[in-house]
Every structure is written in C-alpha cells, then in structure tokens.
Amino acid sequence: MTEYHIGPPPVVHSDCVYEYPADPPSRPLWLTIVAVTGVCVAVIAMVIAATVIAVRKSDPTVIIPDWPAPPSTVTSVSTVTTPVPVPGPRATVTAAPPSLPRVTPPPPASVPVSSCQLLRNQANADYSVVSSEATGLWVPQLSSKQPGLVADGITWDCNSILAEHLRLRGLYGAKLLWSGDWPHTFGHDDYWVTVAGYTYDTAEGARQWCQDHGRDVPEHCYPTQIR
C-alpha cells in the first residue's frame, strides 16, 4: 500500500537546491463581509425586478414607478426679463475760467483842438441864444476879424482872434458870430464877429452903450442890427 504525503514532495538530495513557496496568506475578514453583502444586494434587486415584471403582466393598469425613479424633466422655463437701466443725462461740469485781473484801459489820447475849431464850436453854441434873444434888435459890435487881417499892428489868426473874443466875453458878456451864418446881417461871410451881450430897440441906444464904455466909434464899436 502506497502512502501519500500532503505537502510538497520530499526533497531530492542533489547539487541543486529547490525552494518551494510558502502557503498563501489568509484573506482578511472585512473583505469577505463586503463580498457577501454585494451578493445579497444583487439578489434582492433581481427579486424586485422580477416582481415588478410579474405585476405589470397580470394587471397592466397598475402603475408601478420604476426604481430608482428617473430624474424629473423640466418641460417649461419661465423667462424673467430684467430691465436694462437707462443711464440718466450726464451731468456737465463746466469749470469756471480763472479770473483775470481787471485791466483798466488807458484814457484815449486827447486830440488837441485847434483855435479855429474852438471858434467854430463857440459860434455854434451862441447862435441859438442870439437868434432867440436879439433877432430884430440892435447890439454893440465890438470886433470883426478874419485870419490874415492886419489891424492895430497885428496879423490876426485863429489864436489871436480867440484870445480877443475871450477877453471881451469876460468884460461884456459878449457872444461870437460867424458872419456866414447871418447873411442878412453882415455883408461878408468869412468874419468872426464879437457883439456885446446887450440889446437895444434903436441904433442910437447901441451907439450910446459904446460911448458909455469908452470905446471909440466906429473903429472899435458901432451899432449892428441882428436880422
């Protein structure tokens, strides 16, 4: 009777040495539990599925929801429109210009007025007075000059005529006439005439004034009727 040994065969003595692997290690307990649980879950799922199929075949009107239930499907989506804010009017900021120092313009340069122009200005001013107060009356005429006239040792010009008139004006309230403005009174139209500021109804009254004021007649004073 032959005897069988459990385990590796006996080692044969030779020059070569053979090494046999050791027994495999034992499996941990938790792996075994996990494997068994998985098998149970699979069996239960198969049983539930078979039961559902059987119920649907026996009564099609019975509604049994699938397990696990599929996710719900959204059939409509409401759209909410958010109004876009409308920007308001942009404020405009205007920077004030820097204040500049006030510059006072220089006074206009005075234009010298000639003596001839001063005579013309004075005759214009006196015209309305003589016209309203002496027309038709007699006045003492004190002087009658024109530029270039030689009299009393003087060659008269606008300067000297103006100077004489201003002196007589201060003494007798005289008025200045331009003979060209009074064509019915004077026979020449280019003389500056100075008359005293007194009026008379007759020529004799004006002549008497000349005598009373020491002015010789007719060289430096004689009666003239304003017309």
Q: Can I get a quick summary?
A:
The chain has 227 residues and is an alpha+beta fold.
**Strand count, sense and closure of the main sheet?**
4 strands, antiparallel
Mean pLDDT over the full residue set = 78
- Separate helix tally: 4
Give, in spatial order, the strands making up the sheet with the most strands.
4-5-1-6
The ordered string of helix (H) and strand (E) elements is HHEEEHEEHE
Radius of gyration: 73 Å
Helix content: 25-40%
SS-based structural class?
Answer: alpha+beta
Dominant shape: rod-shaped
Q: How much strand content do the residues show? A: 5-15%
Number of strands: 6
| Ends apart, CA distance between termini | 197 Å
Task: Pick out the low-confidence regions.
Answer: 1-14
